[in-house]
Amino acid sequence: MNIQLEKMKQKEEFERRKRTAEKKLREWMQKKREEERRERERKLSKEMAEKATKELEKMQLQEKAKVKYNEWLKKKRAEESEKRKKEKEKEKERQVELQEKRERAEKIFNEWLRNARNKPRPVLNSYGFSHGKSTGLYFYYTYAVT
Predict the structure, then answer these.
(1) How far is residue 100 from each of residues 17, 32, 38, measured CA to CA in Å?
(2) C-alpha to C-alpha distance for 84 and 90, rounded to whole angstroms
């Protein structure tokens, strides 16, 4: 009887230890699953944060590029406007110079015309020619005799 009682105690002890071990195993497995779940959530959260950060950086980069492009475009348009303005000014200067040149030429021509009217004309009967024909003796006799 003692042996049976001892065996029963051993069996009960064994069963109790077995239940405790199983309970601890279940608790450990539950704890492990919870840790894995938290780890997955942490990784997912980290990935989402990294993705959001990258997206934000991408958007900031695009915005920065857009701003730089707009600045470049504004500068380019200002340069083109300045270039057209300078070309118009040069054209105006060229037109003014041409007008002044025409006026000077016209003034000089009118001056020459006024002076040409007042200049003495060559005498037609001078130097042995009259109305374009020779009146000198030498030329007259040379042509008449021959």
Answers:
(1) 121, 100, 91
(2) 10
